[in-house]
Design brief:
3-stranded mixed β-sheet; binds thymidine-5'-diphospho-beta-D-xylose; 7-stranded parallel β-sheet; globular; alpha/beta; 12 strands; binds nicotinamide-adenine-dinucleotide
Length: 366
């Protein structure tokens, strides 16, 4: 039995992880700590409210007194650290919050974990799992080999630089103080609860609303797509079988150009609407409901500054050591994700509030 602190558990991956973990490990207890920024949504965990193995605390990972009190009071032995500012475009417009949350916040968690678990002797066996990103490795050329755990760090955006700094702090707390840490660097996730500022959910909600699909630059940037439940399985493998002090890369093994991905979503929308006349009544503004091609909504827009060209993950280490393999194909994952957004319009309409709309205006005005 474990008592987990899940930071950022009201966000996209964190919420999926909490649901996944309590399905797989119902005897464990999960305490979520989340500051409920624009990307955090307590409704993502509504189905768990009232369960004795679940608790939610609103607060920041930068609040050392709160983190220490939670570690002691709840006798937490594991931290799974998702909390972060996570959107590259936002980090270009305003990097300060990324430094504060991703670097200072991670350092605060590390100091609290060391103090309570080690200096006070409360938890000799413990685990600090840090969730990071493939973006710390920089950008690949078309024929470069995929990122391994020993690829040199070369972060290109304020977001990835802040994540890289946090990775180094986690590593240092293991080597210097013996804190029992693991780190995972994963590729682009997608699935339910994904905030519609990121590529896949933005494209889906715009297809449903009949709005433009903004593709940056020439649309030929490549990402390695990982269905979020596969990511949760990877973290579970590391928490249960991974070696302390080690880093594991987690990827979906599916490289895809953005423009091909967006075209796939348009095709899935057109096919789904053609099969289900009810959808045409529910989403009359979508081109698919009008018998037109969703792909005609695609618009090439000004590129993201410093836009990384290609990411790809080499999963050999986690496969060989932990027997982990991603299982969801891109086509199956995109269909499940499309269906989730179609069936959860109240969720995405509620998160796309006034502040979100002003962000979209700022980001896409150029
Ligand atoms: P998200 O933006 O959807 O969620 C982040 C969560 O962190 C939100 O609930 C937010 O309220 C919370 N948060 C922000 N600042 C906080 C603070 N100071 N204290 C407590 N909570 C705070 O992000 P996500 O996509 O779920 O990403 C989760 C983690 O995974 C991040 O660390 C991110 O860097 C990493 N990651 C994400 C992806 C991806 O494709 N989404 C890929 C690789 C790595
Ligand atoms: O409107 C868009 N048009 C577009 O062409 C948006 C939002 C994105 N893009 C492009 C930029 C990227 O090449 O799509 C690709 C994916 O963009 P994002 O969804 O913003 O993800 P990315 O920048 O790749 O970063 C994501 O993966 C790594 C997550 O947001 C990070 O948190 C994670 O670390």
């Amino acid at each position: 039995m474990s008592n987990l602190l899940v930071t950022g558990g009201a966000g996209f991956i964190g919420a999926n992880f909490v649901h996944y973990w309590l399905r797989q490990h119902p005897a464990d207890r999960v305490v979520v700590l989340d500051a409920l920024t624009y990307a955090g949504n307590r409704a993502n965990l509504a189905a768990l409210e009232g369960q004795s193995n679940f608790a939610f605390v609103t607060g920041s990972i930068t609040d050392a007194a709160l983190v220490e009190e939670l570690l002691r009071r709840e006798r937490l032995d594991t931290i799974v650290h998702f909390a972060a500012e996570s959107h590259v475009d936002r980090s270009i417009h305003g990097p300060d919050a990324f430094i504060q949350t991703n670097i200072v916040g991670t350092h605060t968690l590390l100091t609290c974990a060391r103090k309570v678990w080690m200096l006070e002797g409360a938890m000799p066996q413990h685990r600090f799992h840090h969730v990071s990103t493939d973006e710390v490795y920089g950008s690949l050329g078309p024929h470069d080999p995929a990122f391994t755990e020993s690829t040199a760090y070369a972060p290109n955006s304020p977001y990835s630089a802040s994540k890289a700094a946090s990775d180094h702090l986690v590593r240092a707390y293991h080597h210097t103080y013996g804190l029992q840490v693991t780190t995972s660097n994963c590729s682009n996730n997608y699935g339910p609860f994904h905030f519609p500022e990121k590529l896949i959910p933005l494209m889906i909600v715009n297809i449903l609303r009949g709005q433009a699909l903004p593709v940056y630059g020439d649309g030929r940037n490549i990402r390695d797509w990982l269905y979020v439940t596969d990511h949760c399985r990877g973290i579970e493998a590391i928490l249960t079988r991974g070696r302390v002090g080690h880093v594991y890369n987690i990827g979906g093994g599916v490289e895809c150009e953005n423009i091909l991905l967006v075209r796939s979503l348009c095709r899935i929308a057109d096919e789904t609407f053609a099969r289900d006349p009810d959808l045409c009544a529910r989403y009359p503004q979508s081109l698919a409901a009008q018998g037109k091609s969703s792909a005609s909504l695609i618009q090439y827009v000004t590129d993201r500054p410093g836009h990384d060209r290609r990411y790809a993950i080499d999963c050999q280490k986690i496969r060989a050591e932990l027997g982990y393999e991603a299982t969801v194909t891109l086509e199956a994952g995109l269909r499940m994700t499309f269906d989730w957004y179609v069936n959860n319009s109240a969720w995405w309409q509620s998160v796309m509030d006034g502040s979100y709309r002003s962000w979209i205006k700022q980001n896409y005005s150029a």
